[in-house]
Amino acid sequence: MQKNRKMHERSHHKIRLVLELLPALSMVGLVVFFVFFEPTIPRGASLTSWSENGRDGRYVLNILDGDAPPAGVQVSGVVLSDTNCTPDLRGFNHCHNGIQLADGVDIVVINTHRMKIYRCLRPGDKLLLSRINGSWVLATLLKP
Known about the structure:
Strand content: 25-35%
Number of strands: 6
Low-confidence stretches: 30-34
């Protein structure tokens, strides 16, 4: 009886230890994931890191809703909104911007950047957009 009780106590202790360590191990796993696995930069974009997105007023954007301009065509647009800008664990913002194109069509894009380094797109900003590939576009801020 004594032997069974000691085995039970050791098992209980091991389970409790694992349960206590689980949150810490999970957090370490998340940090490693977010530090080493940044979203893929689309082929054809002139970025080596998302930290560069917004430099010189040039933003690589992923279209979430709507259509990218045809390849080789530049389209002007005006930013309508800037939402969902809370940074992730790596400090990247994934802002959602509504943009009205010159033909009156609205699109919604995701702007992955670090707003501590380069500012968000703001309502009223005028842009020139061109397709990079697939649903990716390059937006260049036009001077007021």
